[in-house]
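Slack export, channel: ligand-projects

TW: morning all. Re-posting the request from yesterday since it got buried. We need the structure predicted with the small molecule present, not the apo form. The ligand is zinc ion; the SMILES is in the block with the sequence. No rush, but it would help planning for next week.
GE: picking it up
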Amino acid sequence: MNEKNKAEAERRAKLLKMRAERLPDIKKAFEENQKRNFNANFAPGGKDEHLVRKKTTVTKATATKKVVKTAAKTTKTIKKASPRNVKATKATPGATEKKRDVSLLVSTRKGEMVHHQRMLSQDVNAQATQHIIGIPVNKSRYNGYNGQQITMAQIKQARQHKDAVRVIPIGGLGEFGIGKNMTAIEYQGEIILIDMGTLFASEDYPGVNYMVPDSKWLDDNRDKVKAILFTHAHLDHIGACRHLLPYFGPLVPIYGTAFTIGMIKKQMSELPDVPDMNYHEIDPLKHENIKLSEHLSAEFIHTLHSIPGNTSIVIRTPNGNILLSGDWRFENNPMDTPADYDRLLEIRDKEGYALLLNESTNIDTPGTHPHSEYDVGENMGRVMDHYANGRVIISCFSSQVKRIELVLKEAAARGRKVAFAGYSMINNVEVALRARSIKVPKDTIMKMEDIIKLPDEKVTIVCTGSQGEMNAVLNRMVSGSHRYIKIKATDTIVFSSNPIPGNEPKVVGTVGGLLREGAQVIQNGKTHLTNIGPLHLSGHAYFEDHVKFVTDMQPKNYMPYHGEFYMLQHNAEMAENVVGIPKDRIIVADDGDVVELMPDQTIHKNGRIHVGNKLYDDADQQVNEAVVKDRIHISREGIFVVILTLSKKTGRLIKTPDIVSRAFIYLDNSEELIGKIRHYLRAKTDHTVSTEADVKALKEEIKEDVTHILFDATGHTPIVIPVINKV
Ligand SMILES: [Zn+2]
Ligand SMILES: [Zn+2]
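GE: finished. pasting the full token output, ligand included:
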């Protein structure tokens, strides 16, 4: 046995031992759970029992009062209404004359159409405003107001305490998806920003690719920003840099690890005018306390996640230390330098943590990570062994550069070459090489145009598209629109990822397409089908990891961040019920909430700042919310344009009205309906239209009437656009 094989055998033995050791852990976790006091807060004997009793009595009293008041109001309204009604009827004849009432020949009442339009507009609004707008509903028991919803009046009354350190989540909390992470920390007019991420829009937002935090508050406070810090280089933390960083210019220092800064620079280099920025690369293992402003300083701590150069950040403030966890996972057998957990514990012992902001992504996943990144690498090798005669195509997130390093190693060991496909994949590998985050075996990487000349059994391709993105490489390989690769029956495709919640149908579509081409597909989480797995390791801590982390850090106060609302809430429940942090020291905040850390190290919520989203399409152009609403409306009901040419002199129609219908009805089959509308338009224009006001009024009436005729015939209310030309 040579040295190499021996080392390999040892590594395997170590892995097997690790797995065997986990079994008792699982048993222990189960027993632990039996002892835990999960809450029934409002039940008799529960922590919030007193609230229930209070609430019932209060509600009863107010309820009766309310009824009385409403009754009184109703009588008043009726009395008042009658004289007005009379007036209205009197005025009607004049109006009708001016309105040129024309019979619409419809069988539905106008009220039915109006009702349909109202329901539609409610649906459209609900769909286009799933991101946080105005004051979000938050009646969580950890909401900072004892479960009571905050009102506009309360927000207006809020006055900031001079000595408070203000923690303000600008994005990433309670959104519909994980993303757009950005936190501000403010003390006496000095502001530190941490992360600037994007949030990918769902299918519900037609034509919108991603969202970035609304910058109004930043615009108003730009001069106060003393430093910008980045925890790591995932797009949900740095994606908005190209939109937000150029505001600040070369005076504001930007801090991050070498890989993170490399990725930001790469992104900024794609701007038409590359701004001159003040970048500082940090080596977290040096434990440097970076002075950011007169009162605030920061220390980066090396932690592990699914990307190189990942960190937590400790912000030292006059009211105590704030620990921002960033994204993290525990790893027993990491590829990277082990996490600097000792430093976190050292700071805890010497200085303590007044407030911990902890990420919430995988709080709903029980237990701890059952395997390591090395298992994933080993299984990639097994795929190459089992399917040795064909091409192996591995699809994963482009930021998983450590996993890519493993693929390279496994391929090199089997005499395979590797090519990368997908713009972001190639970019990230380049940045990783430059930041020395990965090592690459000699003569293994090839260009796509060269690798296809090799026999299939030598070819390994690492590509994007594991989320079933329509325009990503993998789908193009299926459809045949990829320049170099068309999937064939001898190919094996590995999905080294899990679908992000919401992407499942797209992934299913891609897998279906691959299978139809006769290819072998191996997905993570479906080990029973091929006996090969796991093929992915999540980058985020699981429930028991959080329990350990929060218990170890002993924070005075706790605030879940980086998560949808349910994740934040579950994270808070974990902190109270399992770790034992008192309820009044835990806050579930939304984007825009101002959380104040006081000199006595208590926390409370105090008002809100303006937050929101800017929507962008895939050409990086901003999309107005009104445009999104129109798109949704059109996609459901269509669009209907009538073009009238009137004589300037007589105001009558000169020629037959033109009618254009898109995404509504197919005109060829609708002669009767079109005839009806033409008839109506002729009758409607049998009057002089002289002033601009006349034209405007006529347009409004035509819009309403045509909508009614269309609704009557089809049950739909497309966007009706009347166009009037006068010649
Ligand atoms: Zn991340
Ligand atoms: Zn993240």
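GE: first-pass observations. The two ends are 95 Å apart (CA to CA). The chain is about 40% helix and 15% strand.
TW: perfect, thank you
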